[in-house]
Protein backbone atom coordinates (compact mmCIF):
# COMPACT_ATOMS: atom_id res chain seq x y z
CA UNK A 1 0.00 0.00 0.00
CA UNK A 2 1.28 3.41 -0.98
CA UNK A 3 0.75 5.80 1.95
CA UNK A 4 1.00 9.48 0.98
CA UNK A 5 1.14 11.21 4.29
CA UNK A 6 2.49 14.38 2.73
CA UNK A 7 -0.64 15.03 0.80
CA UNK A 8 -2.83 17.47 2.68
CA UNK A 9 -6.38 18.34 2.10
CA UNK A 10 -6.70 21.54 0.15
CA UNK A 11 -8.21 24.27 2.28
CA UNK A 12 -10.16 26.97 0.56
CA UNK A 13 -9.26 30.51 1.66
CA UNK A 14 -11.97 32.33 3.56
CA UNK A 15 -14.15 34.57 1.42
CA UNK A 16 -13.01 38.18 1.13
CA UNK A 17 -14.96 40.59 3.25
CA UNK A 18 -15.82 44.22 2.70
CA UNK A 19 -12.94 45.25 4.97
CA UNK A 20 -10.46 43.13 2.97
CA UNK A 21 -11.10 45.22 -0.14
CA UNK A 22 -10.50 48.57 1.57
CA UNK A 23 -7.27 50.62 1.35
CA UNK A 24 -4.96 50.17 4.33
CA UNK A 25 -3.03 53.44 4.04
CA UNK A 26 -4.55 56.83 4.74
CA UNK A 27 -3.62 58.39 1.39
CA UNK A 28 -5.54 55.88 -0.74
CA UNK A 29 -8.30 55.82 1.87
CA UNK A 30 -8.74 59.59 1.48
CA UNK A 31 -8.76 59.23 -2.33
CA UNK A 32 -11.53 56.63 -2.00
CA UNK A 33 -13.63 58.80 0.35
CA UNK A 34 -13.25 61.74 -2.03
CA UNK A 35 -14.41 59.63 -4.97
CA UNK A 36 -17.41 58.35 -2.98
CA UNK A 37 -18.37 61.90 -2.02
CA UNK A 38 -18.08 63.18 -5.59
CA UNK A 39 -20.49 60.45 -6.76
CA UNK A 40 -22.77 60.61 -3.70
CA UNK A 41 -22.02 56.92 -3.20
CA UNK A 42 -22.44 55.16 0.18
CA UNK A 43 -22.38 56.38 2.87
CA UNK A 44 -23.03 59.78 1.28
CA UNK A 45 -26.29 58.59 -0.27
CA UNK A 46 -27.62 57.74 3.20
CA UNK A 47 -28.26 61.32 4.29
CA UNK A 48 -32.05 61.38 4.16
CA UNK A 49 -33.98 60.54 7.34
CA UNK A 50 -36.79 58.22 6.17
CA UNK A 51 -39.16 59.79 8.70
CA UNK A 52 -38.64 63.28 7.27
CA UNK A 53 -40.66 64.61 4.35
CA UNK A 54 -38.04 66.92 2.83
CA UNK A 55 -39.55 69.88 0.92
CA UNK A 56 -38.86 69.43 -2.78
CA UNK A 57 -37.36 72.89 -3.15
CA UNK A 58 -34.95 72.26 -0.26
CA UNK A 59 -33.94 68.72 -1.23
CA UNK A 60 -30.60 69.75 -2.88
CA UNK A 61 -29.78 72.02 0.09
CA UNK A 62 -30.56 69.32 2.65
CA UNK A 63 -28.46 66.82 0.73
CA UNK A 64 -25.45 69.16 0.37
CA UNK A 65 -25.46 70.19 4.04
CA UNK A 66 -26.09 66.70 5.43
CA UNK A 67 -23.25 65.26 3.35
CA UNK A 68 -20.93 68.07 4.50
CA UNK A 69 -21.53 67.10 8.11
CA UNK A 70 -20.77 63.49 7.16
CA UNK A 71 -17.34 64.67 5.99
CA UNK A 72 -16.91 66.34 9.37
CA UNK A 73 -17.55 62.97 11.05
CA UNK A 74 -14.87 61.40 8.88
CA UNK A 75 -12.35 64.15 9.72
CA UNK A 76 -12.96 63.68 13.45
CA UNK A 77 -12.50 59.90 13.24
CA UNK A 78 -9.27 60.28 11.27
CA UNK A 79 -8.00 62.84 13.78
CA UNK A 80 -8.84 60.62 16.73
CA UNK A 81 -6.90 57.74 15.22
CA UNK A 82 -3.95 59.48 13.57
CA UNK A 83 -3.77 63.04 14.92
CA UNK A 84 -4.72 66.54 13.81
CA UNK A 85 -2.06 66.97 11.13
CA UNK A 86 -2.87 63.59 9.58
CA UNK A 87 -6.52 64.63 9.47
CA UNK A 88 -5.56 67.83 7.64
CA UNK A 89 -3.42 65.84 5.22
CA UNK A 90 -6.29 63.46 4.54
CA UNK A 91 -8.72 66.35 4.02
CA UNK A 92 -6.30 67.90 1.50
CA UNK A 93 -6.31 64.73 -0.58
CA UNK A 94 -10.08 64.31 -0.16
CA UNK A 95 -10.73 67.83 -1.50
CA UNK A 96 -8.34 67.38 -4.42
CA UNK A 97 -10.11 64.13 -5.35
CA UNK A 98 -13.57 65.73 -5.11
CA UNK A 99 -12.39 68.60 -7.30
CA UNK A 100 -11.12 66.13 -9.89
CA UNK A 101 -14.27 64.04 -9.67
CA UNK A 102 -16.62 66.97 -10.17
CA UNK A 103 -14.39 68.87 -12.56
CA UNK A 104 -15.67 72.25 -11.47
CA UNK A 105 -14.71 72.56 -7.80
CA UNK A 106 -11.97 74.59 -6.19
CA UNK A 107 -10.15 72.25 -3.81
CA UNK A 108 -9.02 75.08 -1.54
CA UNK A 109 -12.56 76.43 -1.26
CA UNK A 110 -13.83 72.94 -0.48
CA UNK A 111 -11.23 72.64 2.27
CA UNK A 112 -12.27 75.96 3.79
CA UNK A 113 -15.94 74.96 3.63
CA UNK A 114 -15.35 71.72 5.54
CA UNK A 115 -13.23 73.49 8.15
CA UNK A 116 -16.12 75.94 8.54
CA UNK A 117 -18.55 73.04 9.00
CA UNK A 118 -16.35 71.94 11.88
CA UNK A 119 -16.63 75.39 13.46
CA UNK A 120 -20.43 75.30 13.04
CA UNK A 121 -20.49 71.89 14.73
CA UNK A 122 -18.45 73.14 17.68
CA UNK A 123 -20.78 76.11 18.19
CA UNK A 124 -23.84 73.89 17.87
CA UNK A 125 -22.54 71.44 20.47
CA UNK A 126 -21.85 74.36 22.79
CA UNK A 127 -25.39 75.70 22.31
CA UNK A 128 -26.88 72.26 22.96
CA UNK A 129 -25.01 71.90 26.25
CA UNK A 130 -26.06 75.22 27.77
CA UNK A 131 -28.12 75.06 30.94
CA UNK A 132 -30.88 77.04 29.26
CA UNK A 133 -31.28 74.49 26.46
CA UNK A 134 -31.00 71.42 28.69
CA UNK A 135 -33.56 72.76 31.14
CA UNK A 136 -35.88 73.99 28.40
CA UNK A 137 -36.26 72.70 24.87
CA UNK A 138 -33.34 70.24 25.13
CA UNK A 139 -32.69 70.40 21.38
CA UNK A 140 -29.85 68.29 19.96
CA UNK A 141 -26.74 69.89 18.51
CA UNK A 142 -27.91 69.04 15.00
CA UNK A 143 -30.86 71.42 15.42
CA UNK A 144 -28.57 74.34 16.18
CA UNK A 145 -26.23 73.41 13.33
CA UNK A 146 -29.15 73.24 10.90
CA UNK A 147 -30.49 76.56 12.10
CA UNK A 148 -27.16 78.34 11.62
CA UNK A 149 -26.76 76.96 8.10
CA UNK A 150 -30.28 78.03 7.12
CA UNK A 151 -29.67 81.51 8.54
CA UNK A 152 -26.55 81.75 6.39
CA UNK A 153 -28.47 80.58 3.34
CA UNK A 154 -31.13 83.21 3.97
CA UNK A 155 -28.44 85.88 4.23
CA UNK A 156 -26.92 84.76 0.93
CA UNK A 157 -30.36 85.07 -0.66
CA UNK A 158 -30.74 88.49 1.01
CA UNK A 159 -33.61 87.27 3.13
CA UNK A 160 -33.99 88.49 6.70
CA UNK A 161 -35.00 85.45 8.67
CA UNK A 162 -35.48 85.32 12.44
CA UNK A 163 -36.62 82.66 14.85
CA UNK A 164 -39.86 81.03 13.79
CA UNK A 165 -39.60 82.01 10.13
CA UNK A 166 -38.07 78.78 8.83
CA UNK A 167 -41.44 76.96 9.04
CA UNK A 168 -39.88 74.14 11.03
CA UNK A 169 -37.34 73.33 8.30
CA UNK A 170 -34.47 73.74 10.76
CA UNK A 171 -35.89 70.79 12.74
CA UNK A 172 -36.26 68.70 9.56
CA UNK A 173 -32.72 69.50 8.44
CA UNK A 174 -31.45 68.74 11.93
CA UNK A 175 -33.00 65.27 11.77
CA UNK A 176 -31.38 64.63 8.38
CA UNK A 177 -28.00 65.76 9.70
CA UNK A 178 -28.38 63.46 12.72
CA UNK A 179 -29.39 60.51 10.50
CA UNK A 180 -26.61 61.20 7.99
CA UNK A 181 -23.86 61.49 10.60
CA UNK A 182 -24.98 58.35 12.44
CA UNK A 183 -24.90 56.32 9.22
CA UNK A 184 -21.57 57.78 8.17
CA UNK A 185 -19.98 57.20 11.57
CA UNK A 186 -20.71 53.46 11.43
CA UNK A 187 -19.35 53.10 7.88
CA UNK A 188 -16.23 55.22 8.44
CA UNK A 189 -15.41 53.44 11.66
CA UNK A 190 -15.29 50.16 9.75
CA UNK A 191 -13.33 51.63 6.84
CA UNK A 192 -10.70 53.15 9.13
CA UNK A 193 -10.22 50.06 11.27
CA UNK A 194 -7.14 48.79 9.43
CA UNK A 195 -5.90 52.09 7.99
CA UNK A 196 -2.35 53.16 8.85
CA UNK A 197 -0.76 56.55 8.31
CA UNK A 198 2.71 57.47 7.10
CA UNK A 199 3.32 60.82 5.48
CA UNK A 200 5.64 59.20 2.92
CA UNK A 201 2.69 57.47 1.19
CA UNK A 202 1.04 60.80 0.38
CA UNK A 203 1.59 62.12 -3.13
CA UNK A 204 -0.18 65.51 -2.95
CA UNK A 205 -1.33 68.22 -0.59
CA UNK A 206 -2.87 71.67 -0.35
CA UNK A 207 -0.75 74.56 0.87
CA UNK A 208 -2.11 76.31 3.93
CA UNK A 209 -3.82 79.66 3.40
CA UNK A 210 -1.76 81.11 6.26
CA UNK A 211 1.39 78.99 6.44
CA UNK A 212 3.83 78.99 9.32
CA UNK A 213 7.49 79.75 8.75
CA UNK A 214 8.61 76.21 7.91
CA UNK A 215 5.79 75.59 5.44
CA UNK A 216 6.24 79.04 3.88
CA UNK A 217 9.84 78.29 2.98
CA UNK A 218 8.80 75.00 1.42
CA UNK A 219 6.35 77.02 -0.69
CA UNK A 220 9.18 79.25 -1.84
CA UNK A 221 11.43 76.34 -2.75
CA UNK A 222 8.81 74.20 -4.51
CA UNK A 223 9.55 74.08 -8.27
CA UNK A 224 11.23 77.48 -7.96
CA UNK A 225 14.13 77.94 -10.45
CA UNK A 226 15.75 80.49 -8.13
CA UNK A 227 16.73 77.58 -5.86
CA UNK A 228 19.12 74.75 -6.63
CA UNK A 229 17.65 71.69 -8.34
CA UNK A 230 17.69 69.51 -5.23
CA UNK A 231 15.95 72.20 -3.15
CA UNK A 232 13.14 72.63 -5.65
CA UNK A 233 11.87 69.16 -4.79
CA UNK A 234 9.32 69.10 -1.98
CA UNK A 235 7.42 66.02 -0.83
CA UNK A 236 4.17 65.61 1.07
CA UNK A 237 6.25 64.23 3.94
CA UNK A 238 8.26 67.48 3.98
CA UNK A 239 5.02 69.45 4.17
CA UNK A 240 3.63 67.24 6.91
CA UNK A 241 6.72 67.66 9.10
CA UNK A 242 6.64 71.42 8.48
CA UNK A 243 3.03 71.47 9.67
CA UNK A 244 4.10 69.67 12.84
CA UNK A 245 6.88 72.17 13.57
CA UNK A 246 4.68 75.19 12.84
CA UNK A 247 1.83 73.78 14.89
CA UNK A 248 4.11 73.16 17.88
CA UNK A 249 5.52 76.68 17.62
CA UNK A 250 2.11 78.38 17.53
CA UNK A 251 0.84 76.16 20.37
CA UNK A 252 3.83 77.15 22.52
CA UNK A 253 3.15 80.80 21.74
CA UNK A 254 -0.53 80.34 22.62
CA UNK A 255 0.50 79.03 26.04
CA UNK A 256 2.57 82.18 26.61
CA UNK A 257 -0.36 84.36 25.56
CA UNK A 258 -2.69 82.54 27.94
CA UNK A 259 -0.19 83.03 30.78
CA UNK A 260 -0.14 86.74 30.01
CA UNK A 261 -3.93 86.98 30.14
CA UNK A 262 -4.05 85.15 33.46
CA UNK A 263 -2.02 88.02 34.89
CA UNK A 264 -4.14 90.62 33.17
CA UNK A 265 -6.31 91.44 36.19
CA UNK A 266 -3.23 92.31 38.22
CA UNK A 267 -1.81 94.72 35.67
CA UNK A 268 -1.95 98.42 36.42
CA UNK A 269 -2.88 100.91 33.75
CA UNK A 270 0.59 102.28 33.31
CA UNK A 271 2.45 99.01 33.50
CA UNK A 272 5.32 99.33 31.04
CA UNK A 273 6.42 95.74 31.49
CA UNK A 274 3.01 94.46 30.32
CA UNK A 275 3.25 96.47 27.11
CA UNK A 276 6.78 95.18 26.60
CA UNK A 277 5.62 91.58 27.03
CA UNK A 278 2.80 92.05 24.52
CA UNK A 279 5.25 93.55 22.03
CA UNK A 280 7.62 90.63 22.55
CA UNK A 281 4.82 88.18 21.90
CA UNK A 282 3.84 90.02 18.71
CA UNK A 283 7.46 89.81 17.55
CA UNK A 284 7.46 86.09 18.40
CA UNK A 285 4.34 85.58 16.31
CA UNK A 286 5.94 87.33 13.34
CA UNK A 287 8.85 84.91 13.52
CA UNK A 288 6.44 81.96 13.60
CA UNK A 289 3.64 83.06 11.22
CA UNK A 290 0.57 80.93 10.61
CA UNK A 291 -2.79 81.31 12.35
CA UNK A 292 -3.63 85.02 12.58
CA UNK A 293 -6.06 84.55 15.49
CA UNK A 294 -3.15 84.75 17.93
CA UNK A 295 -1.83 87.92 16.30
CA UNK A 296 -5.27 89.55 16.27
CA UNK A 297 -5.68 88.70 19.97
CA UNK A 298 -2.33 90.25 20.82
CA UNK A 299 -2.97 93.37 18.76
CA UNK A 300 -6.31 93.83 20.52
CA UNK A 301 -4.59 93.36 23.89
CA UNK A 302 -1.99 95.95 22.96
CA UNK A 303 -4.64 98.51 22.05
CA UNK A 304 -6.33 97.93 25.42
CA UNK A 305 -3.06 98.39 27.29
CA UNK A 306 -2.34 101.64 25.45
CA UNK A 307 -5.83 103.04 26.00
CA UNK A 308 -5.72 101.99 29.62
CA UNK A 309 -2.36 103.71 30.03
CA UNK A 310 -3.58 106.88 28.33
CA UNK A 311 -6.52 107.09 30.71
CA UNK A 312 -4.19 106.83 33.69
CA UNK A 313 -2.12 109.70 32.28
CA UNK A 314 -5.10 111.94 31.57
CA UNK A 315 -3.86 114.47 34.15
CA UNK A 316 -0.28 114.44 32.89
CA UNK A 317 -0.15 115.92 29.40
CA UNK A 318 3.64 115.67 29.20
CA UNK A 319 3.75 111.92 29.84
CA UNK A 320 0.74 111.35 27.62
CA UNK A 321 2.49 113.18 24.78
CA UNK A 322 5.61 111.07 25.35
CA UNK A 323 3.51 107.91 25.15
CA UNK A 324 1.88 109.04 21.90
CA UNK A 325 5.30 109.87 20.44
CA UNK A 326 6.61 106.46 21.41
CA UNK A 327 3.61 104.83 19.75
CA UNK A 328 4.15 106.85 16.60
CA UNK A 329 7.74 105.63 16.43
CA UNK A 330 6.55 102.07 16.99
CA UNK A 331 4.20 102.17 14.01
CA UNK A 332 6.95 103.58 11.80
CA UNK A 333 9.09 100.50 12.26
CA UNK A 334 7.34 98.70 9.42
CA UNK A 335 9.60 95.68 9.54
CA UNK A 336 8.64 94.85 13.13
CA UNK A 337 5.36 93.24 12.12
CA UNK A 338 6.56 91.96 8.72
CA UNK A 339 6.59 88.19 8.93
CA UNK A 340 9.16 87.70 6.17
CA UNK A 341 11.60 90.20 7.68
CA UNK A 342 11.36 88.52 11.07
CA UNK A 343 11.74 85.02 9.63
CA UNK A 344 14.67 86.09 7.45
CA UNK A 345 16.64 86.79 10.62
CA UNK A 346 16.20 83.17 11.77
CA UNK A 347 18.21 80.52 9.85
CA UNK A 348 15.84 77.86 11.18
CA UNK A 349 13.28 79.23 8.73
CA UNK A 350 15.47 80.65 5.97
CA UNK A 351 19.08 79.39 5.73
CA UNK A 352 21.59 82.13 4.99
CA UNK A 353 22.61 80.54 1.69
CA UNK A 354 18.97 80.70 0.54
CA UNK A 355 18.29 84.25 1.63
CA UNK A 356 18.62 85.75 -1.86
CA UNK A 357 16.27 83.34 -3.67
CA UNK A 358 13.86 83.55 -0.72
CA UNK A 359 13.88 87.36 -0.89
CA UNK A 360 13.28 87.36 -4.64
CA UNK A 361 10.35 84.98 -4.18
CA UNK A 362 8.53 87.51 -1.98
CA UNK A 363 6.11 90.31 -2.93
CA UNK A 364 7.72 93.68 -3.56
CA UNK A 365 6.42 95.17 -0.31
CA UNK A 366 8.31 92.50 1.67
CA UNK A 367 11.47 93.18 -0.34
CA UNK A 368 11.29 96.90 0.42
CA UNK A 369 10.63 96.19 4.12
CA UNK A 370 13.64 93.88 4.31
CA UNK A 371 15.96 96.35 2.61
CA UNK A 372 14.82 99.12 4.95
CA UNK A 373 15.50 96.78 7.84
CA UNK A 374 19.06 96.33 6.57
CA UNK A 375 19.77 100.06 6.47
CA UNK A 376 18.02 100.80 9.75
CA UNK A 377 20.46 102.14 12.32
CA UNK A 378 20.21 103.38 15.86
CA UNK A 379 22.44 104.83 18.53
CA UNK A 380 22.94 101.47 20.22
CA UNK A 381 24.41 99.89 17.08
CA UNK A 382 28.22 100.11 17.37
CA UNK A 383 28.84 99.32 13.69
CA UNK A 384 26.02 100.82 11.57
CA UNK A 385 28.06 100.16 8.42
CA UNK A 386 27.29 96.49 8.73
CA UNK A 387 23.77 97.19 7.51
CA UNK A 388 25.12 98.75 4.31
CA UNK A 389 27.43 95.79 3.82
CA UNK A 390 24.47 93.43 4.20
CA UNK A 391 22.43 95.40 1.68
CA UNK A 392 25.35 95.35 -0.76
CA UNK A 393 25.48 91.58 -0.35
CA UNK A 394 21.77 91.34 -1.16
CA UNK A 395 22.19 93.56 -4.22
CA UNK A 396 25.15 91.58 -5.52
CA UNK A 397 23.36 88.31 -4.98
CA UNK A 398 20.31 89.64 -6.76
CA UNK A 399 22.28 90.74 -9.80
CA UNK A 400 23.97 87.34 -9.96
CA UNK A 401 20.65 85.51 -9.66
CA UNK A 402 18.89 87.55 -12.33
CA UNK A 403 21.64 88.54 -14.72
CA UNK A 404 21.13 85.74 -17.20
CA UNK A 405 17.48 84.82 -16.97
CA UNK A 406 14.16 86.33 -15.92
CA UNK A 407 13.58 83.69 -13.30
CA UNK A 408 11.52 85.66 -10.80
CA UNK A 409 8.05 87.11 -11.47
CA UNK A 410 8.25 90.89 -11.78
CA UNK A 411 12.00 90.52 -11.40
CA UNK A 412 12.82 93.99 -12.72
CA UNK A 413 10.48 95.63 -10.18
CA UNK A 414 12.06 93.56 -7.44
CA UNK A 415 15.53 94.49 -8.59
CA UNK A 416 14.55 98.16 -8.61
CA UNK A 417 13.14 97.85 -5.07
CA UNK A 418 16.51 96.58 -3.87
CA UNK A 419 18.60 98.96 -5.96
CA UNK A 420 16.76 102.11 -4.91
CA UNK A 421 16.91 101.51 -1.15
CA UNK A 422 19.04 104.31 0.28
CA UNK A 423 22.00 102.97 2.28
CA UNK A 424 22.59 106.41 3.76
CA UNK A 425 19.11 106.72 5.23
CA UNK A 426 19.29 107.63 8.88
CA UNK A 427 17.28 105.93 11.55
CA UNK A 428 15.29 109.09 12.19
CA UNK A 429 13.64 108.83 8.78
CA UNK A 430 12.09 105.51 9.75
CA UNK A 431 11.90 105.85 13.53
Short overview:
This protein has 431 residues and is mostly helical.
Key structural traits:
disordered C terminus; globular; 431 residues; mainly alpha; 18 helices
What does this structure look like?
The chain is mainly α. It has three domains: 19-200, no CATH class; 210-340, no CATH class; 363-431, no CATH class. It has 18 helices and no strands. It has helices at 26-38, 59-82, 84-102, 107-128, 131-135, 141-156, 169-191, 213-221, 236-262, 272-288, 292-312, 317-332, 339-344, 355-360, 364-375, 385-402, 411-419, 427-430. The protein is globular, with a radius of gyration of 29 Å. Mean pLDDT is 81; it is low at 377-386 and 423-431.
CA-based gyration radius:
29 Å
Report how far apart the termini are.
107 Å
Largest sheet: none
Would you list the SSEs in sequence order as H and E? HHHHHHHHHHHHHHHHHH
Total strands:
0
Tally the helices: 18
Work out the helicity level: 55-70%
* Structural class by SSE content: mainly alpha
Number of domains: 3
Give the rounded overall mean pLDDT: 81
Fraction in beta strands: under 5%
* Uncertain parts: 377-386, 423-431
Categorize the overall geometry. globular
Amino acid sequence: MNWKFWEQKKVEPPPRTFEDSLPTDLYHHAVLIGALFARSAPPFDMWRDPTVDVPTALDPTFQRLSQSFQVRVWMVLVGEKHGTQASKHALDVFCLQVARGRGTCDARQLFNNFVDIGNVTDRAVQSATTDENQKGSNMPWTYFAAKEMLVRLAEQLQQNKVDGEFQGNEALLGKCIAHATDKASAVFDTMLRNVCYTSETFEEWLWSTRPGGHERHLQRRWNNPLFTADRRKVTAADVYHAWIKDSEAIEALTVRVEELFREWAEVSAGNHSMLKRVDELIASYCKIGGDTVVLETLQSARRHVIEWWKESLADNSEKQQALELAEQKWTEFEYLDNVFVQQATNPEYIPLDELIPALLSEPIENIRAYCKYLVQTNEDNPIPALHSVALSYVREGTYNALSFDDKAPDWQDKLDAISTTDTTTSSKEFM
